[in-house]
Design brief:
membrane; VWFA domain-containing protein; 11 helices; signal; vWFA_dom_sf; 6-stranded mixed beta sheet; 616 residues; globular; transmembrane
């Protein structure tokens, strides 16, 4: 375990260093840049998860993430919360102080007070700009026993964080981005904190996942213009002030090929360029680049990107960090030049804008061409059909012009379901902010019976369950309708399996990772193994009959060679007698029909015996 976390901290440190480009290429003015508050977990478990004390190196490079002139602060927490570096304007002195606090990251404490850490970091003196809090933790809430009886005191702190502090911070505009980098972390807690405040969350089980999670958070805090990379090439239009290439290592060292054919490497970079070659990536900053088509050779792995500094910026309307299954996404985009909106007649020629929703693999889930309305481009992206992490990308293409903006998002069901086994009910909670008891109707279907959902609060419902056999897994099909803006449409909801015979209890379903990709529009792959049993679900005579039917196709194939002479000889003799030939032909067709019916019955029985209702 320690070795894995050791590697992850190395990747984190490398990532923070490579993200220096954010400070140079952000289009926003310094006064408009959000304030970043980073909260490090220094609880006792870190002693095992970071045995080589690499958190100090991670901090040293992480401070380079924040651009000069912005505001940032650093907190640590275990049993107590400390603020060794209060929020201040980032400059050389600030960076020096941040690097000097590395020893404090190994001053391990026994307990983990996440509630107090979030409260103190988020409620520190405001600076008049949006606050983004980045929480890194590898554990769960664990308070000392002197504060109250355990585990009740831990549960109370968790409830206060989610039901009181989280909503309060959301109302005040504080955005929480949370990363759980241990399989022992409370993933449900970090997900719900991020979701309710408009932030991003991630569970990282490998170093590359940690890198991707940090890149997503940086893209959310400091969005920047990119040029798309197509067939290992990218277009630089005239007038660009510069570009930065972040290239993750492939099998060969990275090489840049300019439009005039000149080849550049780390040993021979372009004139005036800065080329940093690290173990996992190359960071290349090129000022006043030559216009035309550039090519990449060697290192250009996943997450590589080309960001540009230009007087012309692509902008997109604020997209929520959380999208919902079944709900279309309105998209609006436009261009700014030196802070002023560009009029339609001053836009690049033959300009075409598209919006795409891409899953984690980069495949497009849905896409739409944006319609130009004077200087704005608008459209509605079809509703997402996959839950999980995704990216919403707006891409602009024109004559000699390429640009794109990418925003990471999470896609979740509009309604969450939880089985309250103790009270024989299913609890439903509206995740979509527009759903409530007045516009949403929910119900369930259990073994053919209709079960109504009764409102418990403004955005919560309860479905009472009949008495069920707890030894049997029973699928509850959830249905719903919502009426918004005078239009009624069906909600896309998952199935919930009651009493599943799996390691995770059903009352923990809503505490599991909500960001794993689930294909709700298809039949879900069963999450549990088929129950092993020596008893047949059918009576013995019927079971023997079914087995005999299942064996008919194989027996017929094996016996064909033996029957062929017997069948063909009478057929040849009967060909002279028209009536006899007709009777024989009819008999053969009847036999073939019987075999086909038996084969279909065997196939259906085999599928029915192994089929299992999908579940959350």
């Amino acid at each position: 375990m320690g070795r894995v976390r050791n590697t992850m901290w190395r990747w984190l440190a490398g990532l923070a260093g490579c993200l220096i480009m954010t400070g140079h290429l952000s289009a926003a003015e310094v006064a408009e840049r959000p304030e970043v508050r980073v909260v490090f977990d220094v609880s006792g478990s870190m002693r095992h998860n970071d045995p080589d004390q690499l958190a100090g190196k991670a901090l040293e490079l992480l401070v380079d993430l924040v651009p000069d002139g912005a505001t940032a602060g650093i907190w640590t927490f275990g049993e107590r919360v400390r603020n060794p570096l209060p929020p201040a304007s980032v400059n050389a002195e600030w960076r020096e102080r941040a690097r000097a606090m590395a020893p404090q990251l190994v001053a391990y404490e026994q307990f983990t007070d996440i509630e107090s850490a979030v409260y103190q970091a988020a409620m520190a003196e405001p600076n008049g700009v949006p606050i983004h809090l980045v929480l890194l933790t590898d554990g769960v809430i664990d308070l000392p026993a002197w504060r109250g009886g355990k585990p009740a005191i831990d549960a109370s702190s968790r409830e206060a964080l989610l039901d009181e502090l989280g909503p309060r911070l959301a109302d005040e505009g504080v955005v929480i981005h949370a990363i759980a980098f241990s399989d022992e972390a409370d993933l449900d807690l970090v997900e719900r904190l991020a979701q309710m405040t408009g932030g991003l969350s991630a569970s990282v089980a490998a170093p590359d996942a940690l890198m991707g999670a940090f890149l997503d958070i940086v893209d959310r805090i400091y969005p920047s213009d990119r040029v798309p990379v197509t067939d290992r090439g990218f277009l630089v239009e005239p007038g660009l002030r510069g570009f930065t290439a972040l290239l993750f290592r492939g099998e060969e060292p990275a090489t840049l090929v300019a439009p005039d054919g000149r080849r550049y490497t780390a040993e021979a970079p372009p004139e005036g360029a800065e080329w940093r070659s690290e173990p996992h990536y190359d960071l290349i900053q090129v000022p006043d680049p030559q216009a035309g088509q550039w090519r990449l050779e060697g290192g250009a792995g996943p997450n590589s990107r080309i960001t540009v500094e230009s007087p012309l910026h692509l902008q997109m309307s604020g997209v929520s960090s959380t999208l919902y299954l079944g709900f279309a996404v309105p998209v609006e985009a436009w261009f700014l030049r030196e802070g002023e909106e560009v009029e339609a007649d001053a836009l690049p020629a033959h300009l075409r804008l598209t919006a795409e929703l891409r899953d984690e693999s980069g495949s497009a889930q849905s896409a739409v061409v944006l319609e130009q309305q004077e200087a704005r481009f608008v459209g509605r992206l079809p509703a997402p059909v996959l839950a999980g992490k995704a990216q919403l990308a707006v891409r602009a293409e024109g004559q000699g012009f390429r640009r794109q903006r990418v925003q990471p998002v999470n896609v979740l069901p509009a309604v969450a379901a939880r089985h309250d086994e103790a009270n024989r009910r299913v609890l439903l909670n509206a995740e979509h902010p527009l759903l409530d008891r007045h516009n949403t109707r929910l119900h369930g279907q259990l073994q053919g019976a209709h079960l109504a959902a009764e409102p418990m609060a403004e955005r919560r419902w309860s479905i009472a369950l009949p008495e069920l056999e707890t030894a049997l897994s029973v699928p509850l099909v959830l249905r719903g309708e919502v009426t918004l803006d005078g239009e009624t449409h069906e909600l896309q909801l998952p199935r919930l399996v009651l009493f599943p015979s799996v390691a995770t209890a059903i009352d923990q379903v809503d505490a599991g990772p909500a960001l794993e990709v689930v294909r709700f529009h298809e039949e879900l792959t069963p999450l549990r193994e088929p129950r092993a049993t020596s008893e047949s679900p059918l009576p013995q005579p019927l079971e023997q009959a079914v087995r005999s039917i299942q064996q008919l196709p194989r027996v017929a194939q094996e016996r064909w060679r033996e029957w062929q002479p017997v069948l063909t000889r009478p057929l040849e003799e009967a060909m002279g007698d028209r009536r006899g030939a007709g009777a024989l032909l009819a008999g053969g067709l009847l036999l073939l029909l019987v075999l086909l019916v038996a084969w279909r019955m065997a196939i259906r029985h085999r599928h029915a015996g192994s089929r299992e209702e999908p579940h959350v």
